[in-house]
Write a structure and sequence with these properties.
By secondary structure, the chain is of the alpha/beta class. It has eight helices and eight strands, in the order H-E-E-E-H-E-H-E-H-E-H-E-H-E-H-H.
């Protein structure tokens, strides 16, 4: 059976697209954004993390479109490092509660400024990076303060596709969404 050609089904507010158009780097928190925020421990005390495959594919698509995903997180774990390696994410800072200097170091490495950055966070430690970034986003289950300063709030929860929705919005703003989607139409 032949189906019609793939065309984008998502619709975005034009003002959001304009605001996100110049984004070249996106800072992501981990717990509560890339994961559901739960901390799982094995019987041996190993920290386990759950990541959503939709989010991972969105991060890969950002890279294809020339937008750099970066991670700035207050925690560090072997599962996180493994997942970031699998996704090809090269810019990450671990175990930092003061996230602004970590984000500024990544901006310097990339030769970018805050007005070219977006951020997705869910709690108080993420607020300074969200406030400085051109475009801020929060998952649906973020803390009230993160929801309050976000330019856009995903309808999905952290660790359950919120990152993918944000990636899709950024890809649409960048003009890459339709072309990337068409590559899956054959």
């Amino acid at each position: 059976m032949n189906r019609p050609a793939l065309t984008p089904s998502q619709q975005w507010d034009p003002q959001l697209l304009l605001k996100a158009q110049e984004v070249r780097v996106v800072f992501f928190d981990v717990d509560g954004v890339l994961t559901d925020g739960g901390l799982y421990f094995s019987g041996e005390g190993e920290v386990l993390k759950r990541f959503h495959t939709l989010d991972g594919h969105g991060l890969k698509m950002l890279q294809k479109a020339g937008i750099t995903p970066a991670v700035v997180t207050g925690r560090d774990s072997a599962p996180l490092r493994l997942r970031l390696k699998q996704l090809g994410i090269e810019h990450a800072r671990f175990g930092t509660e003061d996230k602004v200097p970590a984000a500024e170091a990544i901006l310097a490495e990339l030769g970018l400024q805050w007005d070219q950055a977006a951020a997705m966070g869910d709690d108080w430690p993420d607020l300074p990076v969200m406030r400085r970034s051109r475009f801020a986003c929060a998952p649906a289950n973020a803390h009230d303060e993160a929801l309050h300063i976000a330019d856009w709030v995903s309808s999905r929860r952290g660790g359950d596709g919120a990152v993918r929705q944000f990636c899709d919005l950024l890809l649409a703003a960048n003009g890459a969404y339709a072309g990337l989607l068409a590559g899956y139409g054959s």
